[in-house]
Specification:
Chain lengths: ~230, ~375
């Protein structure tokens, strides 16, 4: 079965020191392909750590992590980087954009690191993706001149430009007003309808409720896992 | 390549500083080339002065050439073991010429200074060399200008002259007979050139009224002291001035050293500025680029590739100013904007050694900085 599967995953920071933090304490979790999942919980509950592990940005201290049935927790940094590039798209709360550079430049990152992609088609691919998100005319504009909603659209364009299976979003509406948040969530709904797996870390209940599944974390453990019927 | 292009676009953030650094590097490379030329001349002049034994030469400048025989006779009486070399020859050091010495060769010289330590033959004033100018070359030239070989020389005129190598000396002088002057190889271009102006021939009656110089040489086993002879010979009637090749050489070296003083200071200042500027710029750019690195990691660049990307970026930012500098030097040389040729392989080698060290230092800083941290730490801090 395709999807993400964590088995008894623990993540400990500063292990063996007085500053040791047990961020994740034996997480067992399966995210099916095509699911739209919200991860919620209070600050310090381990949401971002979980997202980083799911996105192959960080390594587990113990336990196993499978992506589409492939064990990835022991893979080297080159292979993990390749998986990040091919399988995941990332959307961040503060957009994660280089503000002095154009939308086009910002969106190009995943394509540049994709060895299978033909460089000559980059501009065309970026234009098509931006057009899909309604920001085609902002291609050459420095992202510092864009509104919050436009910035997040640029970030989403970057996340989907490589056509990944999984979109990981860390508080994607955290810096937006409610109307713009609604528009951005509409885009995630659209991507979900197209078959993408969406995992959103959020504090916002209304955002979590729009997802078909909610996972609630507390002190590094899953205390609730609710699926809409 | 495309990863490097992505990284190089980051230059945009510090374009002004980078252009300033390019200008600093350009100025310091030009100054270094000028200084290297000056130092090369000083070193080469000193080497040749020693090798040729020029410290044994003494020149007597006389007011009228007509008094030559009388003065010559008086000198011979005072210093019987002083070797008469020439009535036209003199030894000089010229501020712009790397070879910096010359001999006029005439019958007197040829007959009085017969080199025996020679392969081939010494000049014979009465011999027909088949229309070629006979040339005796030093040993270090003999690989290039072989015994019996015929070569074209640049006499400054459209009609070129050809020389034939008749002898190879075991010292460092190049001789052409019959008042043609010294032939030199331009140290930088490797072209054979006359190292002095063409000789002006004058009618004998007028020549007798003109100033001239008699050149003497003290044999190695002579007890004559040059300084003492200098003072004594000045007292001979008709003698205008007496000077040694050594004093000429000292003056030449002093002037060259003085001339090199300002370029040395400027060169050191500019080099220091450009090195400090370049290293600071790279350290600053690594700090400024943290978010860029975070995004690279996030979207699929491994830490090792990130280090390589930064090294390639450093190399490009290091090579571009140097390429610009050498193109500029080429343009300046082509337009003859500076009196001497600026480009030399020696100077270029020094530039690459100096800036290469700078690049290594900068790269070490980049690699240490990037390898010290886990990508997730950079992502957490910046995204």
């Amino acid at each position: 079965m395709s999807g993400l599967y964590l088995k008894n995953v623990r993540k400990i920071y500063n292990e063996g020191t007085s500053a040791q933090v047990d961020a994740l304490r034996g997480i067992d979790l399966e995210v099916l392909s095509g699911e739209m999942t919200a991860i919620t919980g209070p600050s310090g509950s381990g949401k971002s750590t979980l997202l980083h592990i799911l996105g192959c940005l960080d390594r587990v201290t113990s336990g196993e992590y499978f992506i589409d049935q492939e064990e990835v927790s022991e893979l080297g940094s080159n292979k993990l980087a390749r998986i990040r590039n091919k399988k995941f798209g990332f959307v961040l709360q503060e957009f994660g954009l280089l503000l002095d550079y154009s939308s086009q430049y910002n969106i190009s990152f995943p394509l540049v690191f994709n060895p299978d992609y033909r460089f000559k088609k980059t501009d065309q691919k970026i234009y098509e993706t931006m057009e899909r998100l309604g920001i085609a005319e902002k291609q050459k504009i420095q992202t510092k001149y864009l509104s919050g909603g436009q910035k997040q659209r640029v970030a989403i364009a970057r996340a989907i430009i490589n056509d990944p299976d999984i979109i990981l979003a860390d508080e994607p509406t955290g810096a937006l007003d409610s109307k713009t948040s609604d528009e951005i969530m509409g885009l995630f709904d659209e991507l979900h309808r197209q078959g993408k797996t969406i995992i959103i870390v959020t504090h916002d209940k209304s955002i979590a409720e729009r997802c078909e599944r909610q996972i609630v974390l507390h002190d590094g453990t899953v205390i609730e896992d609710i699926r809409k019927t | 390549m495309r990863v490097l292009l992505l990284s190089l676009k980051q230059l945009k953030n510090n374009l002004g500083i980078w252009i300033l650094i390019i200008c600093q590097i350009l100025a310091s490379v030009i100054m270094l080339s000028m200084l290297y030329g000056d130092i090369a001349i000083l070193v080469e002049s000193a080497r040749r002065y020693e090798e040729l034994g020029l410290k044994d030469f003494l020149m007597v400048s006389i007011q009228k050439a007509a008094d030559k025989d009388r003065i010559l006779e008086e000198v011979r009486q005072q210093y019987p073991d002083m070797i008469f070399v020439s009535t036209k020859a003199q030894i000089g050091f010229f501020s712009t010429d790397p070879t910096a010495y010359l001999y006029y060769l005439e019958r007197d010289f040829i007959e009085n200074v017969k080199y025996t330590d020679i392969e081939g033959e010494w000049f014979d004033p009465d011999k027909d060399y088949g229309g070629y100018i006979p040339m005796v070359v030093p040993k270090y030239w003999s690989q290039k200008y072989k015994l019996g070989g015929i070569y074209e020389i640049d006499n400054g005129y459209e009609k070129k002259e050809t020389v034939k190598v008749i002898g190879v000396l075991h010292n460092d002088t190049v001789f052409l007979p019959q008042g043609r002057g010294a032939l030199m190889e331009d140290l930088k271009s490797g072209v054979l050139v006359y190292g002095m102006e063409q000789i002006t021939y004058t009618v004998p009656e007028i020549e007798q009224e003109m100033r001239t110089v008699i050149t003497f040489r003290i044999s190695k086993d002579s007890s004559v002291k040059l300084t003492e002879a200098e003072e004594n010979l000045e007292n001979i009637a008709g003698v205008e001035d007496v000077y040694t090749a050594e004093s000429e050489y000292r003056d030449f070296m002093r002037i060259r050293r003085q001339n090199a003083g300002l370029p040395s200071v400027l060169c050191i200042a500019l080099l220091s500025l450009s090195i400090i500027g370049f290293i600071s710029y790279n350290i600053l750019s690594i700090r400024q680029k943290e978010k860029f690195f975070a995004l690279c990691f996030l979207h699929g660049l491994s830490p090792v590739k990130c280090i390589f990307m930064q090294l390639a970026n450093d190399l490009a930012t290091f090579l571009i100013p140097l390429i610009i500098s050498f193109i500029t030097i080429g343009i300046l040389d082509y337009g003859k904007a500076y009196g001497e040729r600026l480009f030399s392989s020696g100077a270029a080698a020094w530039v690459f050694i100096l800036y290469g060290c700078m690049f290594v230092i900068t790269s070490v800083v980049s690699v240490v900085k990037l390898s010290k941290e886990e990508p997730i730490q950079i992502i957490r801090r910046n995204l």
